[in-house]
Amino acid sequence: MANAITLESIQKQLCSEIASMLSMPSGSITPDTDLPALGISSLTFVSLLLFIEQNFGVNLMQVGLKIDDTKSPRRLAAAIQAGRAA
Amino acid sequence: MSLTLPYSRSRRYLTGIDWFISALAHQSTRRNNRVACYSQTVLDVDGALSETAIRGTLDQISDRFRVIHGRIARDWLNLAPFWKMTPPPKDAVIPLRVVDLPEEREDHAEVLFSEHAAVPFDSPSRHLRFLLVRIGQRRSRLGMVFDHSLLDAFGAEMFFWLIDEAFKGHLGEISRRVRQTESAHLDHWMRRFRSGRTINRLLIRLGKQDTIALTIPRAGTIRRLRVLQESLSREESIRLRQWAGEEIGVPLLLPSAAARAILAMRRVFSGTFLPGSQFLVFTSANLRAPGQQWESLFFNHFSLLPLTLAVEPTTGVKEMAIVLRNQFFERMKDKIPWAMQDATMLGRIVPLWIASRLLRLVAKGRGCSFYFACIRDTGFSPESFMGLPTRQLVHQPLVFTPPGLNICMTEFRGTFNLVISYLEGVVDDSSAAQLMAAFKSLLLEPQCEPASR
């Protein structure tokens, strides 16, 4: 059942959560938004990792997250998908 | 004209963190003979700032925000401490001292700023003080010493922005957003007790192993507060940001930087430390909600996060950074910064002198190895201030005693500043210079880069 979550669905949830964390209007974050350019604070980033762990069951740091995976919601979603498959 | 404020607007209840910081400062100033009482933020600009313009702007701010002239009092009905705001006397001004230095005496500015941070305020209702040092017509440095009861580091940076906005005539608009009151928060007791239990257990766990720390001498032998400061170039800052992310796989600088600060400490002080098996470092976490910077301008909106590291001589710096990264993540998962906020609410009924004695129990009286801050989301980063181009904004944090040493990294418009604040008597000047050199070289060391690891 866990594999039923599609990549698009993960991307959508990530975009919505990031917008909410940054108090930005929903829809302002797209899968290709440049996350480093948003100036996300360390606290917000760790909160995002916790959101991922709670909602997708993946501890990204334990599955070997790379800095390039954090550049956009699309890449982050791909890392989550890979982590779920592992 | 002085008007009496309505009851609800004449008091701002202190949060647990406000009270905790006051207790830490109270304990520290007793231990260090009042040589380090306050933090300072220094802004550098190109050109000569106008004394008249600064005085005029500070007067406007002083009139608009009565909170600046408040003082700590206690509500004897609910026992909660609060910030008492009474109309300021007619002659209430925010002090500003101006020093004009000739070009050849530019270095003397550092001494002036060190002295500026060391002098106690002359009244319980005074919490801010400015020093303007002009170096010819070429450069100006404006330092603000602030009482942590009124502002935290982020708020202090925002205060410079407030001055600039007031100078531009936008004070009315901003002052409507700034929150000057706060309820007593006499609710959620069960949650606060649970948080208290969490923090208590954490502190007991931290105290089980001896903390490596510097020796704190008797108060009389601590002479003065000293500050060392260095800036990385833009290119060095970009490289640092890049490899720190690559080193630990997440865009966090704190774990890599804290690991290098610990390593630098070990290299410089290995023979002189009080013996122990782990470094205990308190870091800070800014808990402001995004977009709420003006609302949370005054008082403390951060929390403390303890990190520990047992360092073996063979441990690589990357491994140290990853241990700290995982610990940072786990502590956030356990909501330690928020639990600390909640738990400290319980301690507000304790008078300052008792609270400061209880703090001596942390890590068997050693406090921690050092305080470390890595502040990347700065409160103020515009390209100009009062019409002049900004060069640099550096935070010189309050040095709590113990441990008598604070290592701080801040980022201003893409470049990093390294600041080591220490008490002369706890650390000597030569060791502090070695510590800065070791820390900086570790931050820039090629073998830390992925290509040569």
Textual characterization of the structure:
The complex is a heterodimer of chains A (about 90) and B (about 450). In chain A, helix 1 packs across helix 3. Chain A starts with 6 loop residues before the first helix and ends with a helix. Helix content of chain A is about 50%, strand content about 0%. Chain A is globular, with a radius of gyration of 12 Å. Chain A is built from 3 helices and no strands. With about 90 residues, chain A is mostly helical. With about 450 residues, chain B is an alpha+beta fold. Chain B has 12 helices and 15 strands. In chain B, helix 2 packs across helix 4. The longest helix of chain B is centred in the middle third of the chain and has 19 residues. Chain B starts with 10 loop residues before the first strand and ends in a 9-residue tail after the last helix. Classes of the chains: A mainly alpha (about 90), B alpha+beta (about 450). At the A-B interface, helix 2 of A face helix 9 of B.
Low confidence ranges of chain B: 449-453
Can you write the helix and strand succession of chain B as a string? EHEHEEEHEEHHHEHHEEHHHEEEEEH
Oligomeric form of this entry?
heterodimer
The structure class of chain B reads alpha+beta
What is the topology?
The complex is a heterodimer of chains A (86) and B (453).
Chain A: H1 7-21, H2 42-56, H3 73-85
Helix pairs in contact in A: 1-2, 1-3
Chain B: E1 11-13, H1 16-31, E2 39-46, H2 51-64, E3 71-74, E4 81-84, E5 96-101, H3 108-118, E6 128-135, E7 139-146, H4 153-167, H5 171-175, H6 189-207, E8 225-231, H7 234-248, H8 254-269, E9 279-286, E10 302-309, H9 317-333, H10 336-346, H11 352-359, E11 370-375, E12 384-385, E13 388-396, E14 405-412, E15 415-423, H12 429-444
Parallel strand pairs in B: 5-6, 9-11, 11-14
Antiparallel strand pairs in B: 1-4, 2-7, 2-13, 3-4, 6-7, 8-15, 9-10, 12-13, 14-15
